[in-house]
Amino acid sequence: MKRIILLCGSGLSGETVTEAGHQWVGIDISQAMLSVAQQREVEGELVLGDIGCGLPFRSGTFDGAISVSAIQWLCNADRASHNPVARIRTFFTSLYACLTRSARAVLQFYPDSVIQADLLQSEAARAGFSGGLIIDFPNSTRAKKYFLVLDVSTCRNRPEPLTEGGSNTLSAPTSVVQGRLAEIRDLRQSKKLPKHSVAWIKHKKERARKQMKEVAHDSKYTGRKRPQRL
């Protein structure tokens, strides 16, 4: 029997872990989601906490980690005090610490851009993890899923990505490169926009948001010329 840490939400994925014969501890930032998990009488232990502030567990406590659609929220600055890069770094550092040397973490997520995927992957490596990114159904808009498959000590064999044709011919690195090329094409197209126009300003602000920079919110005054002072 293994002990798993789970970024749990309402505990749906915890049921699968329980059925596999393992114990688990779930953590979530939402009290409402944990209340749903309690009402469903899940067998795992539940902890209220913000993973961006670090995981409150002792070193070497868990044999594995699972997350479904959670870590991409670390890329958002929901409060003025939030620094996305610092929060991501704190999460991966604390995750690495609370896992055993033979542990593996599988973190499924939905990045807004290739920049976010690269940021999460690089911060995981900075924390000490080996492994990397796997993309299932890379050519599908709806079915595409991103996974960080991370090992604590040595990099073991990673599962092959699923593809629509059943053959695993397209690897994750290839898909990431294609994403970068697409972003370069978008950047070149943006140069055709009239400089200082509303569209040009919004494109520049959106690009800055993807780079995790602080950007003022759009309003009805965005792009308008200020009245001349006397």
UniProtKB/TrEMBL annotation:
<comment type="similarity">
    <text>Belongs to the class I-like SAM-binding methyltransferase superfamily. BUD23/WBSCR22 family.</text>
</comment>
<keyword id="KW-0808">Transferase</keyword>
<feature type="region of interest" description="Disordered">
    <location>
        <begin position="202"/>
        <end position="230"/>
    </location>
</feature>
<dbReference type="InterPro" id="IPR029063">
    <property type="entry name" value="SAM-dependent_MTases_sf"/>
</dbReference>
<keyword id="KW-0963">Cytoplasm</keyword>
<feature type="compositionally biased region" description="Basic and acidic residues">
    <location>
        <begin position="209"/>
        <end position="221"/>
    </location>
</feature>
<keyword id="KW-0489">Methyltransferase</keyword>
<dbReference type="GO" id="GO:0070476">
    <property type="term" value="P:rRNA (guanine-N7)-methylation"/>
</dbReference>
<protein>
    <submittedName>
        <fullName>WBS_methylT domain-containing protein</fullName>
    </submittedName>
</protein>
<keyword id="KW-0949">S-adenosyl-L-methionine</keyword>
<feature type="domain" description="Methyltransferase type 11">
    <location>
        <begin position="8"/>
        <end position="80"/>
    </location>
</feature>
<dbReference type="InterPro" id="IPR013216">
    <property type="entry name" value="Methyltransf_11"/>
</dbReference>
<dbReference type="InterPro" id="IPR022238">
    <property type="entry name" value="Bud23_C"/>
</dbReference>
<dbReference type="Pfam" id="PF12589">
    <property type="entry name" value="WBS_methylT"/>
</dbReference>
<keyword id="KW-0539">Nucleus</keyword>
<dbReference type="GO" id="GO:0005737">
    <property type="term" value="C:cytoplasm"/>
</dbReference>
<feature type="domain" description="18S rRNA (guanine(1575)-N(7))-methyltransferase Bud23 C-terminal">
    <location>
        <begin position="188"/>
        <end position="227"/>
    </location>
</feature>
<dbReference type="GO" id="GO:0005730">
    <property type="term" value="C:nucleolus"/>
</dbReference>
<dbReference type="GO" id="GO:0016435">
    <property type="term" value="F:rRNA (guanine) methyltransferase activity"/>
</dbReference>
<dbReference type="InterPro" id="IPR039769">
    <property type="entry name" value="Bud23-like"/>
</dbReference>
<dbReference type="Pfam" id="PF08241">
    <property type="entry name" value="Methyltransf_11"/>
</dbReference>
